[in-house]
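User: My collaborator and I are trying to settle a disagreement about how two of our proteins should look. Neither of us wants to argue from intuition anymore, so we agreed to look at predicted structures for both before our next call. Could you fold the first one, then the second, and keep them clearly separated?

Assistant: That sounds like a sensible way to settle it. I'll keep them separate. The first protein:
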Amino acid sequence: MRDSVPRRATGVAFAAVLLGGGAVGCGDDSAEEDSAKLAPAAAVAKVAENSEDITSLRYRVTGTVPERGRLTAEASMKTEKTKATAMTMKMTVTGARAKGGLDIRFVDKAIYLGGSDLDPAMSGGKNWVRAEPAVWGRGASNNNSYRVLPRSMEVSPVVQSTFLAGSKDVRRIGTETVDGTKAMHYRGTVTSRDLRAAQSAAKDKATRDLRMERVDQFVNQGVDGALTMDLWVDGDDHAKRFRVRGRTIPARYDTDGGTLDLTVTFLDLNPSVSVKTPPAEDTTDTAELSG
């Protein structure tokens, strides 16, 4: 059973500091030929299997989330199996609900927040604010990013890229070029019931646990019903890009749901990733804000 992370009062203080509330490998031209040898369900299952070998990732996110509106982000992360252990992200929000840029870092079980969207009056004039305990990239009940990240971006993109393996209607769209790489495009719909059924059908504990992680992170999206997913697969049977779309149920800090539409592009697999802790002398701890 997973340990839950306490939602401390510092989360409110941390949220208050906000003013407004490349290619993966080289691939080859054989993507169409190789993917055509596999049925669509088998092809996306292969991507899910290969995702277990990913220990770090550099990626880009663009799209719309109900809590913020339009946003773009570029991030690097380190992961252990399906668990994210460290992450650095620069996110720019251009939606109606909030605007500005954020520099977000998860390291040593703490979250650090900087950037132009940080309110100097709330950060004691320093460039960074710190809060702990912080958890990112886990399941629905274990995340705690102090409302800095939209819930749909609190999950690991590696796990997100495997959702389509639980679809009952996945189909091949055709070969397309993504960032100069030929990739096979697949599309399907996914529900939490589909993913739970796939988990129940697992023949061994290791597979069952991995599929449970998909269920848990799917729930964290807050999707109301089915999620439509597009997946682009390169010639090495890795996800090159995916897009998720769907209606969401209200979050506990929102009055209504909205439309989720995010596209994640994998820029590099298994790169060297180092996440630095901001200087202590330039960082305000949320314990001080709470006081």
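The second protein, kept apart from the first:
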Amino acid sequence: MVHTEVFDTQLTELIEWRRDFHAHPEITFDVHRTAGLVAERLHEMGVDEIHTGIGKTGVVAVIKGESTTSNKVIGLRADMDALPMQEQTNLPYASKIEGRMHACGHDGHTTMLLGAARYLSETRNFNGTAVLIFQPAEEADGGGLAMVQDGLMTRFGIQSVFALHTFSGLPIGHFSTRPGGIMGSADLFEVQITGKGCHAAFPHEGLDPAIAVAQIIQGFQTIVSRSIETSAQHVVSITQIHMGAADNIIAETAIIRGTVRSLSSKARALSKQRMFDICAGAARMTGAEIHLNYIDDLPVTENDPAQTDFATDAASKLVGPEAVDGNRTPTMGGEDFSFMLEQRPGNFMFIGNGDSAALHNPAFDFNDDALAYGCAYFATIVEQQLSI
């Protein structure tokens, strides 16, 4: 079994790698420097295969075990991209690029998977094949989907897939996950309303889109309370309303924008249909022209129960069962690892970042004390699932 001590002698170098990634953040698919360094280091480690340009800028490495009598193939995924926000940490290795920072721990995820790659390529104490997935554009633009659409699962024969994500407030050396939905679907919507503008002193000469806005907002807020079953975890949030530019003019148009989050695929589909129904009803009642643009963005991050039991057991072997929560409370945040979990059974696991600033906060920094735990977890997953 892998122990965190295995990585202690490599920790200085791993920290250097992580902090270099942190200082040079790249966003969406524009992760050329990061992907290039990942491929370079994988080559130095002597992995069996390196494939670049998967899902535009993703990198995939293949490591075959000492024994290859098994045809089992396991996938391990880390994300590489940063966020378009200004860092406020004042760290010596803070972002060198204005308006970009690693505020979600992807610099740590990439480093942990690289550490596991070196260990697995040196020891090869498993029977089968490990496929290491370095993904771009997790934060936006659907990098996980792009890799899947580029044939990730079929091209490399992946049968199960696992990922880690750092989590603020969870102690260092602790893990948490759950079977079923662990992170919500994340959809976007925009309602475009067109009426007839006029002078505010003569409203009867126009068609006020504000009336339709009010009806749509009230209608949307009844979806959760009156259409979704009470046991479902579901959120409809209106986040933007744009209308008018003067006090004495009734605007011609209005726009409503927001997001829908859910842990239930059934509730997600019903909510979407109700939104179209409400918009159609408001159009009939007010006479306004109303168009709903609904974007199915991220599906529910759905952990396979059997693979979650396996991942929980693997983490427990590493740090002890008292440091592993196998039934954590789910979160409505979205995660595009969900696209990979739609294709293959697997698990999404949280790893403790200690008492740090929250994710997506300008003061956030990945905790280097978690590196050895993440490396060892990835390696344990491979050795346990592909045991000789």
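Some points you might bring to the call about the second protein. The chain has two domains: 4-183+301-385, 185-298. The first helix runs from residue 11 to 23.
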